Fold this protein.
Amino acid sequence: MSISSKIKQHLPHDELSVKLWKDEKLKPDIREQLLEIADAFIEYLGISIDVIDITFTGSYANYNYTPYSDIDLHIIVDPKSINRDVDLVEEFLKAKRQFWNDRHDIRVLNIETELYAQDVNEPHESSGVYSVKNDEWINKPNKFRGEFDKRNVSRKVKYFKKQIDMEIDDAKNNRNTVGLEKLIKKIRDMRQSGLEKGGEMSDENIIYKILRSEGDIQKLYDMKDNVFDVDLSL
């Protein structure tokens, strides 16, 4: 698929996804399924936790969903209620989340569902957050009034694709991840800056989403892991 076609898929919609929403409320069968998935994840954690909320966020809780969007289901917890060593709790929850999402391919109406255990104090940039537990909006999204700069997005996507290929080739030849790590940080910082400055429809966030949907960002991480594995192999 061409970059221009990818860009068109990221244009905002006038309505929430009719697959999941009716009259700006989660469809009852969708809500029940998400609660069932959340319960399975909570049981999988294997520890006693007080669930403050279960929220649905991301593009499918907004007007900027695409065929590549996931359902982001967040289990809201207070790490201090689990253990006083908050850093330890966060590492544990992160590892469990990654293992769950790597092992399972759970879909709701063929939409991939990603699970997260989220610190109740953690800020979230998404403008659309729905409490599945309470069946109500926490942050109700507004329809997007403006559009991103398609020409700028196309130019920057092509630029980053070239940079990614160059750094991957360099890492293959020199067995060094410095360039990969710098580019990963640059892309992350670009997206964060865009979210803070212009929100979810900022050029920077759309660039990131296209690179992610095309698999370019994953290629950086895969090469970084490959170099690491080779260095430790005999």
Q: What stands out?
A: The first helix runs from residue 3 to 9. Residues 38 and 75 are 7 Å apart (CA to CA). The two ends are 41 Å apart (CA to CA).
